[in-house]
Structures are given as C-alpha cells and as structure tokens.
Amino acid sequence: MKLLLALILLLGIQNVNCMNNGLARTPPMGWMDWERFRCNVDCGNDPLNCIGEKLFQQIADHMAKDGYKDAGYEYVCIDDCWMSMERDANGKLYGNSTRFPSGIKALADYVHSKGLLLGIYGDYGTKTCMGYPGSLNHLQVDAQTLTEWGVDYFKMDACHADPTDLNDGFPKFTNFLNMTGSPIVFSTTWPHHQIKHGIKPNYTLIGENCNLWRNYADIQDSWGSVTGIIDYYAKEHDTLAAAQGPGQWNDPDMLIIGDYGLSFDQSKAQMAMWAVFAAPLMMSNDLRTIKADAKEILLNKEVIAVNQDPLGKWEKRVIQKNKVEVWTKELYNKNYATVFLNRRTDGMPYSFSITLADMGYDTALDHYSLRDVFYHKPLGYYGINDTFTATINPSGVVMVTASSN
Ligand SMILES: *[C@@H]1O[C@H](CO)[C@@H](O)[C@H](O)[C@H]1NC(C)=O
Ligand SMILES: *[C@@H]1O[C@H](CO)[C@@H](O)[C@H](O)[C@H]1NC(C)=O
Ligand SMILES: *[C@@H]1O[C@H](CO)[C@@H](O)[C@H](O)[C@H]1NC(C)=O
Fold it and tell me: What domains appear along the chain, each with residue ranges and CATH number?
C-alpha cells in the first residue's frame, strides 16, 4: 500500500475536482456486514450472527490472521442496526448497549489493535433505512462523535430523507467531517436515492464531496443480482467512467463471494468484473466459515492488483457478441486487463476469438505478453493483430493481463 501511495504521489495523479480528504486513492477494501448479516438483532437466539460487537471482533480476528489484511482488505464496517433506538441525553448516537456492551470506541480500539480500520453507518434523513436515529439536524454532532470514537470510514445512507435536499445536505456533512480534522473515508448512497426519485445526479458535485457512492440497488445473494449491476454499469458507462478516479469511486456494492448464491465460476466472475470496474472491494460473507475456494478468489493478488491500479481507470465493454462480453481496463504504463465474461448457459465452455487490437489495446505498440490471472500462468507473446482465443465456462470468466514490456 505504501509503495502504491508513493507511486501515486510520484505520478502526480490527481483530479481537479476531488474530495479533499486525500483518502481512498485506490478503491477501498474491507468487509461489511449488510448483505450477509442484515438487521439480525436477535442476539438471544443467534448470538454468533447478530449485529453486535462479537461479530465484528471475530471478523477482525480473521481478517488479520487469515491473509485478508495482507492482501489489502483493511476496513471492518458496521452497517445499519448498531444504534440504540434513542440518542443519549447529550443528543449523541450510541451503540445498542446489549449488543455493543463495550461501546463503539472500544470496538474501534480493538479493530485498530489488529492493524485494521473501523467503518460505521448512519443516514442523512430522519431515520436510517431500518428505523434507527438519522442525522438530520444532528449533522455536526454526529461528525464529531465519529472522530471521538476513532472511526475511519463512514457510510451515510439517504432513507427517510428528502431527495431534493441531498445536493445541499451531503456537502454540509462533508464540511463537518473536514472540520473534525480526522481522516474519515466518506461513502454515500447519494446518487442512488436521487435516481430512484427521477433526479439526475451531479457527479461533479458528488465526486467533490465523497470518496465512494452507490448508484444502483443493493446487491442480493444471486447471480441475477450481480449481472443486473453489470448491465446497469454497462448502460451508464460514459457517465460513470467520467465520475471516477483516485479518491472518488462508483460503488457497485459488496462482494458476495463465499455466500450461498454464486457458483465457483460466478464467484470468479464477480471478482474479475469488480476488479475492472475499479470498484471498492467490500466483502460481505462469513470469514469464520468461508470455504477455501472462495477464499482463494478473494485473496487473488493478481486480480486485486488490477483493481488497485494507481490510474483508477474504468473498464470499457469493447465487444458484446454471441452472449460473450469483452471488458478491457487500461492500467498504469500502457498495460491492460481484459475480462471475457460468458453470459451463456448452454453447458459447454465457449471459445471466443478476438484480436488484441479489437480488445482495445493501443495499436501503436506491436506486441504484448499475456497472462492468465486466475491460473497464474503466462500465455505468451501476441502481436497487436494476432488472435487470442479464450475458452470460457458458462456464467464464468477468463481474465488476462497484458504487459507491453
Ligand atoms: C479539509 O479541507 C482542506 C481544504 O480543502 C484540506 O486541505 C484538508 O486536508 C481537509 N481535511 C480533512 C481532514 O479532510
Ligand atoms: C438493543 O437491541 C435489542 C435487540 O437485540 C432490543 O431489544 C433493545 O430494545 C435495544 N436497546 C435499545 C436501547 O435500543
Ligand atoms: C454540478 O456541480 C458542479 C460542482 O459543484 C457545479 O459547478 C455545476 O454547476 C453543477 N451542475 C449542474 C448542472 O448543476
């Protein structure tokens, strides 16, 4: 990470209009409870899986000791349902005292002691999506409370909020965060809640005021949900590609690899697509019981390196033919990553042939060396007009990187 940061500074990569907290120069990586654990507050009957401090401590333990932290996953994030139903006597938020008996500050200290960072959730409106206290009329005190606890990442939702108020409200909160002087990654659902109400998001304004933002519906535990997100991102490509870069990211939502809904091939497909999207990599799964094959996908350093490329460029779908999609992302130093995504369901692996020029690579260079990043093996040299053939499993991917030197 340090090396990457040095490289970014060296390159002087920066956006003119960019969130000014200097954070998330590459897509944030970590874990978030929502998709897998939802609003399970029943600690009496389900003590291991309810939204309480035990869950987050155990996940932090696994992130630290099972290789996730070393691979770059650093934020342990609490989503909705952590709060007490009422603010305290001073008007401050606090954690439900049955489920977070040590308090949020102690949990932040615990997570920090593992070399990790803590994320937490709130809502811009009168209530959170699940009905806990919202931040409207409490914006400054809530920003202050986050820094008192040592929170490193804040996700602010926009349920129970006036969608026409968001372009004023979120920048206000950004300013309050800035005034605390603490480095806090700011994640929102701002454009999603505007689009839902027919308001066109101003991505310039959004990019100036938060580090990542959700554009589309919540991910669910299914392949249909993953492909729905991919289709939305393809449809909105030009708008979204322009919005994103170091410090400011489109967020297609959590990784569901290791859960119930995806096959092995579909799991690789989500990881590959989120890598070329330069998407935040927030796992939502149970790291205490995850199977080895899912873990291997999540820890694939070559795929993660594509995701964390310092240019922070978005992919482009260069061709869509016979239910195969080819997505290419430009990387630092005229390198590329390409995902062949097979949307076919007709049983057999499907062979798809294409020249490197048609894959979107710079035709000024005459050859590239290709590498398969899931099989970790070199595929040899290809001239720019040579044909590459990918044999892709049904609802799966082949992912290659191309190096020009
Ligand atoms: C607050 O904003 C200033 C001016 O844009 C910036 O230099 C500074 O780094 C920001 N501080 C934080 C903590 O975000
Ligand atoms: C804390 O959560 C429990 C459910 O686990 C709930 O019954 C209780 O009312 C909550 N306490 C407060 C103060 O919100
Ligand atoms: C979008 O936000 C930018 C930055 O604040 C502003 O300059 C621009 O006028 C806004 N565009 C529209 C259409 O409101």
Answer: 22-307 (3.20.20.70), 316-403 (2.60.40.1180)
